[in-house]
Specification:
4-stranded antiparallel sheet; single chain; GMP Synthetase, Chain A, domain 3; Rossmann fold; 20 strands; 2 domains
Length: 451
């Protein structure tokens, strides 16, 4: 059952003492397991041999995106949710920002682990996400920063990758329908040429800047070069990781605080960064288990093969002991920042920027998200490889029964249009014969820059 926002806020700001957090985590896990056994045919069968009450996540079988997507209709706890309805909704760009079945949010993933995902998110998840976002901001900024934010009018600029049901695209679409949100919060497309983005940010003058990590790097360089003139209270970086030194460079260039978060479509509120550049897991609402290739626990201080995620808030499409596919390192000792929540670092989510040279000799850098074309109907996976300073090779995996030539033409048109907007019409875009290739870690990199 959904809880009032006040209750969720109270819970978010409750004691973070490890003993108290552990109590809440165990109670929520037991409640979630009982819920899915009652309402999800998939989990009812999967958990049939478990004890009556489960407070220990290691008792649960491991799940992953492929298994869950194959059993989509049985996975959901709402029997009105089906893969046919969800896919039709997700493939309709006009439905971005609308509510699925009148009550849910739909988000999609590009499938870096090999399987694209469709995720149904209920209002309880959004309430927990908002409450934990406030807790995160409280830890990042001081009272003086909050006053500065309010005096500035509370303007916030965010970057989005339009064209699919990503979390940011859905949020931006809903904000656009709100007259108050439209005045204070602006969403800027990752397809916007950098000079135009700089011009619009100079006009908007945001107090909070929430870009993808790769775009934050570019904006820091623009500020250093004297073309960008903004004075944000906070830069909240998301989606892609950066080396610790890069966060320091962004903070120095923009003369502000930089916060980052590690999250996923499967769990928006997974963690948030501290001043020591560690990521603290919101373990009152999340269980994060670093494990080896055989799903055995990896002790703190050792790099894991993958991490198992349990989202203790989503009751319509539960994510329990789910193989997220990221390699993490959990800190073995208390973090110097003083936050008692478990701290980790993630390997394999570094932002990669593609750099080209215009015919006039100007260097142009474009963030990887600008090249995303996974939303094109019939596309299962796209991988873009830069083979030369002026050449891109597009690897496509097309859904069964779909005309690959039609998908290629749509992808080619979108990519060449974006390049033309950046004065890069001379860049060659060729179709690869080979399919997208996995990295040694088992993930599909959407963009592979020139080495």
């Amino acid at each position: 059952m959904d809880r009032p926002l006040f209750w969720t806020l109270r819970e978010a700001f409750a004691s973070r003492h490890p003993e108290h957090v552990g109590q809440r985590q165990r109670a929520r896990l037991a409640d979630m397991v009982a819920h899915v056994r009652t309402h999800s045919p998939y989990f009812r069968a999967l958990y049939r041999d478990l004890p009556g009450q489960v407070e220990n996540p290691t008792l649960l079988p491991v799940t992953d995106k492929k298994k869950l997507m194959e059993r989509f209709d049985e996975w959901a706890t709402d029997r009105g949710v089906t893969i046919e309805k969800a896919r039709a909704f997700a493939e309709n760009p006009e439905m971005i920002g609308e509510r699925f079945l009148g009550k849910y949010t739909v988000a999609t993933t590009s499938g870096t682990t090999g399987t694209p995902g469709i995720f149904i998110i209920d209002d309880h998840v959004m309430s927990v996400t908002n409450a934990l976002a406030l807790r995160m901001i409280r830890d990042w900024v001081g009272a003086g920063d909050i006053v500065k934010f309010l005096v500035s009018g509370g303007r916030m600029a965010m970057t989005i990758a339009p064209g699919g049901h990503s979390a940011t695209a859905v949020a931006a679409a809903r904000l656009h329908k709100s007259s108050s949100g439209r005045k204070r919060i602006r969403a800027f497309s990752v397809h916007l040429p950098l000079p135009e983005l700089v011009r619009q940010l100079n006009e908007f003058r945001p107090a909070v800047l929430a870009p993808y990590a790769s775009i934050a790097k570019l904006l820091a360089a623009e500020q250093e070069a004297g073309r960008l003139h903004i004075n944000p209270v906070l830069v909240a970086v998301s989606a892609e990781g950066l080396p610790p030194d890069e966060y320091n460079r962004i903070a120095s260039a923009l003369k502000t605080k930089v916060g980052n978060s590690y999250a996923a479509t499967e769990c928006y509120f997974l963690s948030y960064g501290c001043e020591q550049r560690w990521l603290h897991v919101n373990s009152d609402w999340v269980i994060c288990e670093p494990v080896d290739a055989d799903y055995r626990p990896v002790p703190p201080g050792e790099q894991s093969h993958t991490v198992l995620l349990s989202n203790l808030a989503n009751r319509v499409q539960p994510v329990l002991r789910y193989d997220l596919g990221d390699s993490v390192l959990q800190r073995p000792d208390p973090c110097p920042c003083g936050n008692p929540l478990p701290a980790l670092r993630v390997q394999g989510r570094a932002a990669e920027v593609l750099t080209f040279v215009t015919e006039a000799g100007e260097r142009i850098s474009i963030p990887p998200l600008a090249f995303e074309v996974d939303h094109i109907p019939g596309t299962e996976r796209v991988q873009i490889v830069q083979t030369a300073p002026d050449s891109l090779r597009i690897r496509l995996l097309v859904a069964p029964g779909v005309d690959p030539n039609r998908v290629w033409q749509a992808a080619h048109t979108e990519i060449t249009r974006m390049l033309a907007e950046h004065h890069l019409s001379h860049v060659t875009v060729e179709r690869a014969e080979e399919s997208p290739e996995q990295s040694s870690g088992g993930k599909y990199r959407a963009v592979i820059p020139l080495r």
